[in-house]
Amino acid sequence: MKRVPRRLFYMLLGFSFMLAACSSPGTGGVPTVTSVTITGVPASSQLAAGATVDLGATVSVSGGASQEVDWSSSDTAVATVNNDGVVTAVATGTVDITATSQADATKSDTVTLTIVLTTTDCSNPEELPSTINDDTTLNAGRCYRAVSIVDVNAELTIQPGVTILVDADKRIDVESKGHLIAVGTASQPIVIKGATSSAGFWGTLRILSGTVVNRLENVIISDGGNNTSYPGNVWVSSSGKVSIKNSTFSNSARYGLYVSSGGQLESFSGNSFSKNNIAMYLRAEHMGSLDNASVYNDGNAENYLDVDGGATVASGTWPATNAPFRVLDGKIIDINHDISVEAGARIEFEGGSRMDVETAGSLKAVGTAASRVVFTGTATIPGAWDTIRVMSDDVNNVFDFVEVSYGGDNTSYPGNIWLSSSGRLNLTNSVISNSKQFGVYVASTGELIQSGNTFAANTSGDIGP
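Above: the chain's sequence. Below: its structure in token form.
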């Protein structure tokens, strides 16, 4: 009898299995498996996703050859298994885990596992330390509590199913020397929330480190945003960097997510913003990092994304988000790169704000008859905002199926659209309306190529001077 230990990690509630090892006498050194017995099954097997159980397999053989096996899962959506027999639960369900002899592929053992993912018990949470200076893992399915400000100066890994309760006015700071890997699953998300579930109960998760390692994936963050200096459930500093996927920001007293000038969204997709005051605060440099599949307007008090002006830092595409971008009062967006705007995108401007297409940049806004690109004021009155200034002569300055309305408030740039003497714009199939001054103003040698447009209710005229 030869005992071969196998480490099998999984989460389950109840399982049954049968093993039939049908074989004929081995020849040529090929072993015959006579029996397999899995050992080490705990009395209670109901565990959270990612929790571990150490099992072994006792294999009776004849022939003395190698008893290495290949592992496989019948449904990787329920559980996966690696080459060492480590099973990771993914979702509730039933799955067959099979070990097949490498010496004789006709010999195998199959175990049927019924995976039942448990909820996190927070009746007796473990306190987090105020300072984390060594690499630390918060174990799957456990509950923790931040009773003070937590400074993270090393690698903090948060496993699926973890819940962190944060006390009143406290926060978690991922410092410049630290980084955060918070990766849950769809069925076992990571939850970071207030110890009391009310908007603004706690401060924020501050991302100050600039490492690409920082990740939030399948994370639900709620009840923060009470700190006026860091006004969001998550606050990314000017040096911070983070990837955010499939995560939910909810019930913030201010913003769900606040990204400072210089902060970076390494990747951003499939996220949701619900019941915050405002979904996001960002600057022009971040607009192209967003996606059009995230949900930005799920019951937030204000249905827009605040854009605090700023300049582009790279070429890119501004998506058609389901909440409009709103350029804040008196702010200017400087376009110094090649920017495209998706059909259906909507950008609103508060009083005194504008957009400048600088000499090094270009702006290509191409909508459709059914889904125009819209540049307009937050108020439906002529002069609600300034203008779109076009200073570059780039052939990519194209507006097709675009609506520009309620601008023209700046006497120096008197139109919804203003072309400098070096500016160039191809304007087609668009609606230019309700300017306090001209619909389009073309300075001296500026070049406007236009056809198929509709001009309406522009106070000083359609095209000036």
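Residues 267 and 440 are 37 Å apart (CA to CA).
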